[in-house]
Design a protein that fits this description.
This protein is α+β, with helices and mostly antiparallel strands. It has three helices and six strands, in the order ββββββααα.
Length: 122
């Protein structure tokens, strides 16, 4: 795994991605299986696919769009590889309407009758 050129990119638009550098050209990088880095509510980080609705595995990133890029720590490299392997096996997200989502939320969290009966209106 040490020979894999997996790098962390900070982009001009504020996004931070990690990906396997397949090709380094004079003006761009070809990155395979890039993931977007997010801060989570517990103070850690999580990965999501950079282009979740695309079947493409490789993406061109222009060097002019990159602020900085660095190699990543061994632990982060392991986490990325595990996520990237799972990412290739996952199914595309299902598309649902707003009405379907609201219906599902109503089923999960039905309004309690006692709450509405005990409300005080000022």
């Amino acid at each position: 795994m040490e020979e894999l050129n997996i790098r962390h990119f900070k982009l001009l638009n504020g996004e931070e991605i990690i990906g396997l550098v397949a090709v380094k050209n004079d003006d761009n990088f070809i990155i395979e299986s890039p993931v977007l880095i997010h801060n989570n509510v517990l103070g850690g980080y999580q990965f999501t696919p950079w282009f979740p609705f695309s079947d493409s595995k490789s993406f061109k990133v222009l060097k002019s769009d990159i602020i900085q890029h660095v190699s990543i720590a061994h632990e982060a490299k392991n986490a990325y590889v595990q996520f990237a392997l799972k990412m290739s096996k996952t199914q595309q997200p299902q598309y649902r309407s707003d009405e379907d989502i609201m219906r599902e939320l109503d089923e999960l969290y039905p309004p309690e009758e006692s709450e509405s009966a005990n409300k005080t209106i000022h």
